[in-house]
Amino acid sequence: KNQVEQSPQSLIILEGKNCTLQCNYTVSPFSNLRWYKQDTGRGPVSLTIMTFSENTKSNGRYTATLDADTKQSSLHITASQLSDSASYICVVSAGIGGGSYIPTFGRGTSLIVHP
Amino acid sequence: EAQVTQNPRYLITVTGKKLTVTCSQNMNHEYMSWYRQDPGLGLRQIYYSMNVEVTDKGDVPEGYKVSRKEKRNFPLILESPSPNQTSLYFCASSPSGQLIFTDTQYFGPGTRLTVL
Questions:
Q1: What's the DSSP call for residue B85?
Q2: Which residues of A touch B41 (CB under 8 A)?
Q3: What's the CA gap between B29 and B93, in Å, rounded?
């Protein structure tokens, strides 16, 4: 069964600090990995997407890494801002042929940034 | 503005009273899907549609129905809601007829449903 585990479940940091969120997965055959940001009361918004051949992808202050050998990904947030307070969801997708995929969603990491 | 809209945003109902949650997208996307999100669980797919008149079950389809008569609309129907369907529901769309790795899913704002 395909599974995505995220850690920590929740995290509190001070504004301006960096943090790293983790995602471990057992999804086969691997197609792609995405990180989403979900603000409270809103739908998820895509931050990054990586395929098998990519091991890092940046989007502003967000940098995602992927180690396909160990089946791990991380999302690093640099110089955190109050607006980074949100849930971060790791989504790992299994390929089903023809370039298409089926996503498996992690439970998310809840990040709170304090002033 | 390109967006996915859902209505209503909040709904409280009673067991057994049929309801419909509407979903509409203005991006001419082929693929649409419904998810539910429960505390401590990841998003789980209920149904999806790859094109008009084409729908298929996701991971948790029991107790739900959908239809895709027009490209832009994908309503979620609960014929006889039960308390275990209390959840936060999201509609999403993406450009291609299937989820392909170059596509991003665009999510609606969510509908919080409570079934008493």
A1: G
A2: 107
A3: 6
Instruction: Find where tokens 């991380």 sit.
Output: A74
Tokens of A34: 């995405």
User: What are the chain A neighbours of B94 within 8 Å (beta carbons)?
Assistant: none
Token pair in block for residue A49: 């997407």
Is a pLDDT exceeding 70 seen at residue B101? no
Compute how many other C-beta atoms are within 10 angstroms of the C-beta atom of residue A103. Answer: 22
Residue B27 sits at the vertex; the CA angle it makes with A103 and B112, to the nearest 5 degrees, is 60
A18 Cα to chain B: minimum distance (Å): 25
CB-based contact B71:B28 (threshold 8 Å): yes
Residue type, A88: Y
Q: Does the pLDDT value for residue A102 go beyond 90? A: no
The whole-number pLDDT of residue B98 equals: 63
Calculate mean pLDDT across residues B28-54: 91
Whole-number Å distance between alpha carbons of A23 and A69: 14
Please enumerate, as own/partner, the contacts of B61-64 that have beta carbons within 8 Å and a separation of 24 or more.
B64/B34
Give the whole-number percent of chain A exceeding pLDDT 70: 97
The predicted structure's pLDDT at residue B100: 66
d(CA A73, CA A91): 10
